[in-house]
Design goal:
106 residues, 0% helix
């Protein structure tokens, strides 16, 4: 599925495997990307942001909660998390990482 525009939700936003958003995502809750999913704009989440294996966000990410990158996931922008940031094997952040909690690379 491809969404050619921005997504604005009071609750959670979940993108399934291979889904694409060609715009920004603003969620009052959590933002979850399935395997290989892509967001081509910024992400602002009131909760957590999680990227499954091979998922990609091509702009800055701001989360009030935790940010988790699965194996091979990529964020092409700065990450600002109110909680912890976990970067799994082969995952990459192409920008600065600022976390109120801990930053862990596994």
């Amino acid at each position: 599925a491809v969404i050619k525009g921005s997504v604005d939700a009071d609750g959670d936003v979940t993108l399934g495997e291979g889904a694409q958003v060609k715009g920004s995502v603003d969620a009052g809750g959590d933002v979850s990307l399935g395997e290989g999913a892509q967001i081509k704009g910024s992400v602002d989440a009131g909760g957590d942001v999680s990227l499954s294996e091979g998922a990609q966000i091509e702009a800055p990410v701001t989360a009030n909660g935790d940010v988790t990158l699965g194996e091979g996931a990529v964020i092409k922008g700065d990450v600002d998390a109110g909680g912890d940031v976990l970067i799994r094997a082969g995952a990459e952040v192409k920008g600065s990482v600022n976390a109120d909690g801990t930053v862990t690379r596994k």
